[in-house]
Amino acid sequence: MKITISKENYLKAIAEAESEGETVIAATLVRWLDVSAPAVTMAIKRLKRDALIRVAPEGQITLTKTGRAIANRLLTRHHLIERMLTEVFGMEWYKVHDEAEHLEHAVSADFERKLIERLGNGQNCPHGNRMGVDTPAARRRRGLKPLDESADRERLSVVSVFERDRRLLEHLERLAIRPGATLLVLGNRRGRSLALRVDGKPVEVTRPVAGRVWVKRA
C-alpha cells in the first residue's frame, strides 16, 4: 500500500477535526481541506479500501489503528517543524503553520529524531497547542476555556489559538493576542464583541474570533 501525500493530508485532517470536537463526515473534509465533494468521495473510497478509515452507516468517519498511526506521525512532524522554524530560525509564530504544512511530508524518521534531540518533545507549538490530538474536553479538564466564555473583569492568560487559519493568526497578532499574552476582560455582552485590554491598550474582539482562543486565569 502506497501512502501518498494526499492520503496523509486526509488522515491528518480527520485527526485535526476530531481534536476540535467535530464529528467527521464527508462534508467536514470538504470544508477542512477546501476540496470538492466528488474529490472527497473518491478519497474516502481509497482510504476505506486501504483499511485506513472506517465509515459508519450514518456517514461518520473514524481512523483505523493504521490510519491513526499515520496521522499521528504527521501531527508530530508538523509540530516539530513549527518549533524548529520559530526556535531555530526565528520565523514569526503566525507564519509557521503554512510552512509546516508543506515541509511535514518531506521529514524522514532520521530527521524527526534529530529534531527531537535538538528541541525535545514536551513543549507546545508556537500557537500554544500540544503535540498530537488535544480535544476541547481535554482542554477544559486542564482548566482552560474559550475566550468568548469569559466574565467581566476577568484577568486571563492566552494559552493556545486555532492555527489552521492564517488570516485569523495575523489578526490576532495585530491585536497582540498571542500565546502567553495577558488580557483583562472589560466587557462581555452576549451577542456582541468582547471589550479587552491587552498590553495596556483597549481592543475589541468578535465572538467568532474569541471562540478560537483558549485561555486560563492569569
**Major sheet size, sense and barrel closure:** 6 strands, antiparallel
β-strand amount: 15-25%
Average the pLDDT over all residues and give the rounded result: 95
Number of domains: 2
The second-level CATH architecture of the largest domain is Orthogonal Bundle
Rounded to the nearest angstrom, the radius of gyration is 19 Å
Number of strands: 8
User: Given the structure, what is the number of helices?
Assistant: 9
Distance between the termini: 49 Å
Please list the strands of the largest sheet in the order they lie side by side.
3-8-4-5-6-7
Query: Level of helix content?
Result: 40-55%
Q: Structural class of the helices, strands and pairings?
A: alpha+beta
What does this entry look like structurally?
By secondary structure, the chain is of the alpha+beta class. The protein has 2 domains: about 130 residues, Arc Repressor Mutant, subunit A; about 80 residues, Roll (SH3 type barrels). The strands form 2 sheets. It has a 6-stranded antiparallel β-sheet with strand order 3-8-4-5-6-7. A two-stranded antiparallel ribbon has the order 1-2. A hairpin with a 5-residue loop joins strand 5 and strand 6. It is globular and about 55 Å long. It starts with a helix and ends with a strand. The model has no long low-confidence stretch (mean pLDDT about 95).
